Structures are given as structure tokens and as C-alpha cells.
Amino acid sequence: MATQAQPQKIEAVLIRQVLGGDNSAFYDLVRPYERAIFTAARSILENDADAEDVAQEAVLKAFVNLKNFRGDAKFSTWLVQITINEARMKLRKDRRKLYDSIDEQQQDEQGDYIPRDFADWREIPSEALQQRELRDALSKAIAGLDPKYREVFVLRDVQNICIADTAKMLGITEASVKTRLLRARLQLRDALAPGIDGSWTTGREEYQKVRPW
Amino acid sequence: MIELKCEEVWREISNYVDGEIAPERRRQMEAHFKVCRNCAAVLDGTRNVVQLSGDGKLFDVPKGFGQRLYAKLNAHLQTGAPAHARPADMPLGITGDRVPLGSHLIYFWESDDEFASGVRFLELGFSNGEHCVLFGHDEANERVLGLLRAKGYNVEGAITSGMLIVLRRESSAPVTLGKIEAAFAAAVRDGAQVIRYLGNLGMGTAPLPGKGADEVLALEAGATALAHRYPCVIVCMYDVNTVPGRLVLNGGFGKHPLAVCQGALRENPYYALGREPEIGHRSIQ
Lengths: 213, 285
Description:
The complex is a heterodimer of chains A (213) and B (285). Chain A has 2 domains: 7-95, RNA polymerase sigma factor, region 2, helix turn helix motif (Rna Polymerase Sigma Factor, Chain: A); 119-210, Arc Repressor Mutant, subunit A (Orthogonal Bundle), CATH 1.10.10. Chain A has 11 helices and no strands. Chain A has helices at residues 7-19, 24-30, 34-44, 48-64, 75-95, 102-107, 132-143, 147-158, 163-170, 174-192, 204-210. In chain A, helix 1 (7-19) packs antiparallel against helix 2 (24-30). The radius of gyration of chain A is 20 Å and the shape is elongated. The N and C termini of chain A lie far apart (44 Å). Chain B has 285 residues and is an alpha/beta fold. Chain B has 2 domains: 6-59; 89-267, 3-Layer(aba) Sandwich (Rossmann fold), CATH 3.40.50.300. Chain B has a 7-stranded mixed beta sheet with strand order 5-4-6-7-3-8-9, sandwiched between helices. In chain B, strands 1-2 form a two-stranded antiparallel sheet. In chain B, strand 8 (258-261) and strand 9 form a beta hairpin. The longest helix of chain B is centred in the N-terminal third of the chain and has 17 residues, at 37-53. Chain B is elongated, with a radius of gyration of 31 Å. At the A-B interface, helix 1, helix 2, helix 3, helix 4 and helix 7 of A face helix 1, helix 3, helix 4 and helix 5 of B.
């Protein structure tokens, strides 16, 4: 079981055990990253069932290809990378269109994003951030992001993965991570901005009035 | 004075939140936030989004996900698909041959060059990231370690990490065998797929253990059995200048299924003649 102590060393041992024929060590290797696998798949796919299907496929692929894993990347990065590739493949197959098309690449990061309004959040007490409705609104807003912004945002801000690893997992440059992250964050901020005259603390009714999404 | 336009601030606001920004630009933005209420609001809103998203409560993993996650892997393993196979042999290094795991091998050496060739066996272990065990009296061990250091290998680091275990000769064969087996077991626990064992006999001021030749013969017989139980290759180096003829014959030739003589690897026809009916090295599946 990987712990905080020296996860990479312990992982190296588990990997050697799996490659030596001990399949059970593979479950210990993956267990700390179950949530990361699901979240990565879910950031690309629209529903839980598809995300689960892809997660299972990714775990199998990781096992079969473990001998190709190089120690120069983190195991978790490699595992999430496989998951993202699987999720993108499923999306392509299901939608019969290129998800990451050349058009999208070219349009990416063109022009400035302009915030829609300037609601001041500083007045909001921290307990308001615990409110369920705010959390639900955020989940909904994330789901509404363009996929290429959503996957960057989920890895970076939901999973707290560093910029360099996020870039590796998605196969894009660090500069692209930063630009897409900016777009995602500002769009989400817009979606959640309560309005100058509104507040999250005044209860559901008023909140609905201010932002009836 | 406002040095930056609002548009410029928005372009960098995400990097500002992440601290991914040059000090001079950071200073300019801080100055801007002090005087621009709108941008300050955008900054706080962006920070709130980041804080809210990163607290681990946003995405619920479906119930039972942890069990279902391994369904395809389990199905794959149950169909009898080949697991990752343990290696069956390893390159010897002393000659160009590969030897099956489970081999117990004698290497007779005479000159300094021949000694260095024997140490090549361990060098391959170092360069392949394999677990190594070195056994002998202190002078012999130091000579081996010195050669490895001279080739640029981090001997001390390997000892600290458990990739190299150095064993000193003990007075009795059972104690020594116990230590060797403990070292092998530790390597396997550490995930070793293969183990390289190099032992030295002869040379120096005390070429043989305290009780002499009989102790060595008991040790060598035990080593052959040990080699069959672990994914290892055991190489014994005998200094033909100092090891008595009786040991060369009954130990070197009598107890080792494989032998390297004069630069060539051979099946040893003199191995345990008439004493151990189950003779012959075997490879591990």
C-alpha cells in the first residue's frame, strides 16, 4: 500500500513484484488512485456509467502495459494519462467526430476572455462556501465547460495536479494548460458570480432570482 | 497610477492565483487590484472557484466503484491470459552466455584480469538494477567493491537501498547459509525478479573459513539447494593460487553443476558424481 512516506519507492517495489508475476501487487499499486482515475474519466465523459467503463478499461491497459512504464514519470501520471486516452477514444467513437480536432487547436487561446460581471465575492463568509447549492451550481457549471477547458480544469483545480503533470497527462504544452485554465476559471467565476446586489448567504430563493440557471 | 489595463490583468489572473508569474508583473497586478474594484472582484471570484473545486468534495465517486474498477482486469486474469512472466535466465557477464536462474556456478581465476572478469557478473546486476549479494572474507569483499567503485557504481547507495547486500564469512556453514537465505528472502520481499550472488574463496591472509575445507564443502552443497529455491544465480570464485587441491576437486568441481574454465562456460561433468541422484541445475518456470 503506497503511503505518504516514500510512495515512489514503494511503487517501484510493487511494480517489480507485478512484473515478477505477482498480480496481487497491482491492486495495491492502483488503489490510492481510484478516485483520480474516475475523476479524470468523468472530466471528459458526460456520465458516470461511461466514466466507469473507461476506468475499468484503463486499469486493464495499465496492467497489460506495465512493462512499458518508465520510472522517469510518476506512476499516477502514467495511469491518468492512460485513462484520459481511453476516455478520448470512447468519446471519438461515440460521437463519430474528432474530439481534439485541428480546428479546435487553432482556435484555442485566441483572443482575450472578458469577464461578464464583477460581482464582489469578498463579502461572502466561509461557511457560505460549504453550501450545497453553491457546490451543485459549480458542478453544473463545470459540466457546461467546453471539454478541452473542462479536462484541464478538473486535473488542475479539482485534483490539484501541478501544471507540468497536467500537461503530460493531456499531451499538451504547459503554456496551453495555463491559457485553458484561465478560460475555465474565468468562465466558472462568471457562472457563479452572484451579482452585485445578490449574495449566496441570503438563501435559495434570492439566489435563484439573481442567477436562475 | 495604474500601470496595467484591466484586460492585461485578466490575461494573467489565473497565473497570479497559481503564483506562476514574474515578480515585477506580480507587483504591478497587486497595485492594480488596490485601485480597481472590478479586477479585485474577479480575482476573489477566481480564487473562490479554485478553493471550492479543490477541496475534494466536488465529484462523488459512485458507490461500489472501487470493486467494479477491477472487473475487466479480473476477467482478463481469469481467462488465463499470460501474467508477466518471471525471467528464466540472465546474462552471465563473465562469458557472453546466459545462464538459467537456479544455476550454481564455479569460476576458477588466477590473474588480476580474471578476477575483474568475475566481478563483471555483479556489474551487470548494477547496470540492470538487479538485486546483488556479495559474500566472502573482508579482503575479498573489499577487492570486489573497489573494482565496482572504480567503474563508477554507487556501491554505498546500493547498500543503503538494499540492492546490494554484503555478507561476511561466518565460522559455520549452517550460520552462513542462514544469512545467505535471509538475504535472498529480503531481496524477494523487496520485489527482486532476479538475484545475483557472488562468493569468493581463497586469496588474502585467511583464504578459508576457520574450520577449513569441510566447512566449505558443507556450504557449497547447501548453496546448490538454495539456488533451486530462489530466482538467483550463484557464482563462486575460487582463487586457484591459494585454494587447496582437495577443495578445487571436491568443492569446485564436486559441488557446482556449471563451470567457467579458461574463458568458457561448460556443464560440469564432475558435478556430484554418484552422490546426489537429483543432480543438474534446473531453470525456474
